[in-house]
Amino acid sequence: MRTKNFITVLIFIALSHNLKAIRDYQSGIIITNNSDTVRGFIIEKNEFFYTSKVLFFEDEKNVIIKQYSPADIKGFRLNNGRYFIAATIPLVNSKDSSLVFLEWLLKGIVNLYAYYEPDNQNIYYYLQPKENEFVLLSNSDHTIYDTLENKYYYKKRKEYIGILRYYFKDAPPVIEKLNNLNLNRSSLINVTKNYHNYVCKNEACEIFESQNNLASYAIGINFSSLNTSLNDFNTSYVNYPVGFTFTVTKIPYLRNFEFQIEYTYIKQSFKYFKEVQNHRIPVLLRYNVNLFKKKAGIIGAIGFTFNHRTSTNEYMKKNSGSNTARLGLFYNLNKRIQLEIDYGIEHSKAVYGYSYYMFDSYYTVIGDEIFQSAYMIGLRYNLK
Predict the structure, then answer these.
(1) C-alpha–C-alpha distance, residues 160 and 221, integer Å
(2) pLDDT at residue 316 in the model
(3) What is the CA radius of gyration of the chain?
(4) Is the pLDDT of residue 24 over 50?
(5) DSSP single-letter state for residue 109
(6) CA dist 261 → 60, 214, 286 (Å)
(7) Maximal CA-CA distance, the chain
(8) What is the pLDDT of residue 219?
(9) Which 8-state DSSP code applies to residue 195?
(10) N or C: at which end does the chain have fewer Cβ atoms within 10 angstroms?
(11) Are 127 and 228 in contact (CB under 8 A)?
């Protein structure tokens, strides 16, 4: 029966991705073509989806989803800080132009944007030195023929370095560092920011960086009900330990995942072991599925638990570990405090040799395997 419960927890964790797909949205705004701001909620998609459209609704109680294209609105902004505007840009490897949504990366003397090309899933970057002028920071392939080896190979032209030299020509210290510049988001934001700071001393530039890419942390406390039944002697024990948690609630670039470390101290007495002291450290990777307008949700977790025990009995095993899985529910009491209820199980191989080893704190011995189950309730305070 316990084995089936363990498998059920793992199945719930695997299915959580499908549940998330229809639940994820966040607050945001759209800017109309009349420059009016409409507040509401934006369906969360990847960057390549946002290139041509955005899905928006105004009322959580009466969800009517509207689709907007770059021709319909001036832009939109998500609550996590990301900002997209409608713009007509020259296309890559073409003389044509197209009206698309660009992600606004930096606002300054020179603006910086990213274009997420949906067909080939490529990312291109554009400078905007003045209004309605968008300059592609290109990095095309150059074909070179090697006469000695009688073969062709490709080399990047790095045209973007020459383009940046031209537009940043009034900032010599910035130009000096361009030769080794990589064509990526962070490098371009940094060099454009340095240029702005050099030529504009009185006003800082604005960077529209996604807050999803910044880690957040939480601390918490939980209370457990642990029921131990030792099958060999038909005895059972109940303990109520208190645990403390530290959680990385936002892992950069891993949406909905969390990393959690716990500490629990338990003092027990068994038939053959008196004054058993157990220091437990579960290490868990958690995955959240938001439900009910993000007020509540489901938590699945898998990980490993380290145990360190001391006892007056010399046969007590000092250190061991077990595979861990949990499934639970959470409810956000406010923006900082979260209530959580979990059911967890652990599994590890029994220790061979002395039979005394199997009398471990709150473990159930089933043949050659050890199982532990617990019901937990906890509170968590978000630090950031």
Answers:
(1) 52
(2) 58
(3) 28
(4) yes
(5) S
(6) 35, 19, 11
(7) 84
(8) 92
(9) H
(10) N
(11) no
CA distances from 230 to 233, 291, 358 (A): 6, 39, 9
Q: Do 323 and 276 lie in a common domain?
A: yes
Residue tagged 């490529």 (tokens): 122
Q: Residue 64: helix, strand or coil by DSSP?
A: coil
Among candidate residues 210, 240, 271, the one where a domain is terminated:
210
Average pLDDT over residues 273-297: 82
Strand 54-57 relative to strand 122-130, pairing:
unpaired
Is the pLDDT reported for residue 280 higher than 60? Answer: yes
State the pLDDT at residue 314: 61
Residues 170 and 79 reside in one and the same domain: yes
Between 3 and 219, residue with greater pLDDT:
219
Q: Average pLDDT for residues 322-334, to the nearest whole number?
A: 90
C-alpha span between 325 and 285 (Å, rounded): 10
* Distance from the first to the final alpha carbon of the chain: 41
In a domain, 48, yes or no: yes
At 67, list the tokens. Answer: 């689709």
**Which residues span the domain enclosing 126?**
26-210
Within a 10 A sphere around the Cβ of 119, how many other Cβ atoms?
A: 7
- Give the domain CATH number at 342: 2.40.160.20
How does DSSP assign 240-275, residue by residue? --EEEEEEEEEBTTBTTEEEEEEEEEEEE--SS--S
Same domain for 168 and 60? yes
Average pLDDT in the 127-152 region?
84
Of 144, 143, 175, the closest CA to residue 162 belongs to 175
Buried b (16+ CB within 10 A) or exposed e, 192-230: bbbbbbeeeeeeebebbbeebeeebebebebebebebbb
Residue 238 and residue 189 share a domain: no
Mean pLDDT value across the chain: 81
342 is written with which tokens?
Answer: 């979990």
How far is CA 217 from each of CA 247, 295, 325, 329, rounded to the nearest angstrom?
A: 6, 19, 22, 19
What SS3 state is found at 351?
coil
Band (pLDDT 50/70/90 cuts) for residue 103 is very high
Is the model's pLDDT at 176 over the cut of 50? yes
Mean pLDDT within 355-361 = 36
Residue the block writes with tokens 């003092």:
267
